[in-house]
Amino acid sequence: MSPIAEYLIAGLLLIGGAFTLIGAIGLARMPDFYTRLHAPTKATTVGVGAIMLASISYSSYQGAGIDTAELLITVFLFMTAPVSANILAKSAMHLGVKHMPETRGKPWDQ
Amino acid sequence: MLARIGLPQPFLSLVLFLVWQLLSDGISGGSVVMGAILAWALPLLTRGFWPERPAIVKGWLLPLYVLRVLLDIVVASLAVARLVLGTRKPRPAFISYPISLEHPLAITMLASTISLTPGTVSADVSDDQRLLLIHALDVDDEQEVIDAIRQRYEKPLQEIFQ
Asked: Rounded to an integer, what distance in angstroms lies between the CA atom of residue B1 and that of residue A104?
């Protein structure tokens, strides 16, 4: 493998790892349920996206041609992540989970 | 015309065919035949679950929209990362967003886009599909968020779906 490709793949892996870590830190640091909900959606979008790109470029350097099956993982993840976030938020509103007092606006009554 | 030869949803068939090619190990004669069979059979078998005719009018605008959303995800992720690592407290808000889209699929796409872009999660759609409840992580001005979503996402979606 050429050094340029190696640096590129390593860089992508680092970016992916960093964003996944930030997502986890956010999950621990954010003050209430709704703000915590934002952290994991970040980790999936940019973190997994970058790791997938790294994986695709690595396997296409190794084998012949571009391995596209990994692209589907990203696509399906992008389709399912919003749904799970939506369901979590909905059930939180249904249960009347407390939100931080600085929050402007109100959740709807279910 | 397409419906008469057993393709009630040409767009769905195309997507199924492409996904099957991506899933199978390289494009070969077998995967093309299998993909064609699936693309023909699945829309027919699931016809009962699709109550409305698909409404994508200007499909060629979709890649442009996806590209813009991906770019926004990267840009907004950096802002959220800074917020997570910084010491400033977030200023969250619940925002009621008035939807002007009508097709259910378009509304789903708008809500998913809002959830995917960091900093906003769509929490609920009102029963009459006129309002979307958004939880934003860090906002100065609610109106700004509403305007940004309208300009960047809803307008293009409206053009695609009509």
From this structure: 53
Q: Where exactly are the structural domains of chain B?
A: 10-49, 59-161
Residue A101 in domain: no
- The complex's ipTM works out to 0.74
What whole-number distance in Å separates Cα of residue B63 and Cα of residue B160?
Answer: 11
Would you call B96 an interface residue with chain A, using a CB distance cutoff of 8 Å? yes
Which residues of chain A make contact with B15, given a CB cutoff of 8 A? none
State pTM to two decimals: 0.77
Determine contact, residues B111/B129, Cβ cutoff 8 Å: no
Q: How far apart are CA B110 and CA B107, in angstroms?
A: 5
Q: Of the spans A96-110, B49-63, B142-156, which averages the highest pLDDT?
A: B142-156
Domain B59-161 part of CATH 3.30.70: yes
Which of A15, A27, A60, A68 has the highest number of chain B CBs within 10 A, making it the mutation to test binding with B?
A: A68
